């Protein structure tokens, strides 16, 4: 069997990667535990460092055929447990790890299990857009509940209605505060925040309000999955710096076409940001060869080697954001109050 350990590690955080708030002092609380699968252990370690905790130990083992086996390596009876695992590529493997960890914790008599899912896979399949197609986002919500999750913590779910797919409490967080802080420091002139489609208008409007900037929308028509044809720009972008904001970047095809449409409409410069850097297939190459000056992403999903080496891609951490939310849940305090 091939073995991957998901255990605590010691690390130092560089000045660029420090959370937005000073980490808490080390605490001793045997009933407050944070575990992580193998999808993004670095983010889990950053969250634990922010909270003054040490990541708790779990072992994820895979048989030769890829079948996963999980063992929680410490006592969790009566504990308030948080399991961090984005369902990023390979999506199905990481989702199965999360389900097995939740089941193991439930059978070990944890008092409460919170699934902390920085990136919620299958979130784009939130409705029947074609005949005889599944609503996969609802199925995954049911799987998490059946496995034993008592509540869920998500960052920027693809659609707001995903909360209604769960029969347990859901706390949706927004990465906007981290991204807004970054772009405020850049002090971009004549800024216009751009939504790449009609579905992202609310997100872009919130961002534009925080940045005290204008708002524009790019109308597009999707030809097929991962292929979109840009139609036209709604709003004045002539001579302005444009900032495209989206929840995720997959192949970056839509992003690059949106940037080209903005430049053709007279924009002076184009920047972009997103919460979830999925970056599949030719995404990094598309960004590298595009007219976009900078793409700012968060660390909900770990970047591939090519993305880490791409100078146009900048990463900002959401460890502090998640850490404050986890602490609020553990202390039975308001989560929404943190992000108003």
Our count of helices gives 9
Distance N to C terminus: 48 Å
Taken from the alpha-carbon principal axes, the silhouette is globular
Radius of gyration: 20 Å
Number of strands: 15
Percent in helix? 25-40%
What's the arrangement of strands in the largest beta sheet? 11-10-9-12-13-14-15
Low-confidence stretches: 8-18
Mean pLDDT equals 89
Given helix and strand content, the structural type is: alpha/beta
Order of secondary-structure elements: EEHEEEHEHEEHEHEEEHEHEHEH
Q: Per DSSP, what share of the residues sits in E-state strands of 2 or more residues? A: 25-35%
Taking the sheet with the most strands, its summary is: 7 strands, mixed
What's the assembly state of these chains?
single chain
Short description:
The chain is α/β, with parallel strands linked by helices. It is built from nine helices and 15 strands.
Plain-language structure description:
29% of the residues lie in helices and 27% in strands. It contains nine helices and 15 strands. The strands form three sheets. The protein has a seven-stranded mixed beta sheet, with helices on both faces. A five-stranded parallel beta sheet has the order 2-5-6-7-8, sandwiched between helices. Strands 1-3-4 form a three-stranded antiparallel beta sheet, covered by helices on one side. The chain has 340 residues and is an alpha/beta fold. α1 packs across α9 (319-330). It has helices at 41-51, 91-107, 136-147, 176-186, 201-211, 253-264, 283-288, 305-309, 319-330; strands at residues 2-6, 32-36, 58-62, 68-72, 80-84, 112-117, 151-155, 170-173, 191-195, 214-224, 227-234, 241-249, 269-277, 294-298, 313-316.
């Amino acid at each position: 069997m091939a073995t991957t350990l998901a255990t605590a590690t010691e690390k130092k955080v560089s000045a660029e990667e420090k959370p937005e708030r000073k980490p808490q002092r080390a605490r001793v609380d045997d009933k407050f535990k944070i575990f992580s699968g193998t999808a993004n252990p670095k983010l889990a370690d950053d969250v634990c460092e922010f909270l003054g905790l040490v990541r708790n130990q779990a072992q994820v083992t895979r048989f030769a055929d890829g079948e996963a086996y999980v063992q929680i390596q410490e006592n969790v009876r009566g504990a308030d447990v948080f399991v961090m695992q984005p369902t990023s590529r390979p999506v199905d493997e990481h989702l199965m790890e999360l389900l097995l960890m939740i089941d193991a914790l439930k059978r070990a008599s944890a008092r409460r299990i919170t699934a902390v899912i920085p990136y919620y896979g299958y979130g784009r399949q939130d409705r029947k857009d074609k005949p005889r197609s599944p609503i996969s986002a609802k199925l995954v919500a049911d799987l998490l509940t059946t496995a034993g999750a008592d509540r869920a913590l998500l960052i920027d779910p693809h659609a707001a209605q995903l909360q209604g797919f769960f029969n347990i409490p859901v706390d949706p967080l927004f990465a906007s505060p981290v991204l807004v802080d970054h772009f405020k420091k850049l002090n971009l002139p004549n800024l216009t925040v751009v939504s790449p489609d009609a579905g992202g208008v609310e997100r872009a409007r919130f961002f534009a309000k925080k940045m005290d900037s204008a708002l524009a929308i790019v109308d597009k028509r999707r030809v097929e999955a991962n292929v979109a044809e840009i139609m036209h720009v709604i709003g004045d972008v002539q001579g302005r710096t444009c900032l495209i904001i989206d929840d995720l970047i997959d192949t970056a095809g839509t992003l690059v076409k949106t940037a080209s449409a903005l430049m053709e409409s007279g924009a002076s410069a184009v920047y972009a940001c997103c919460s979830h850097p999925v970056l599949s297939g030719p995404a990094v190459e598309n960004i590298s060869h595009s007219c976009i000056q900078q793409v700012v992403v968060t660390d909900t999903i770990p970047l591939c080697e090519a993305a880490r080496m791409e100078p146009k891609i900048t990463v900002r951490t959401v460890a502090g954001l998640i850490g404050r939310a986890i602490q609020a849940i553990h202390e039975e305090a308001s989560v929404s109050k943190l992000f108003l």
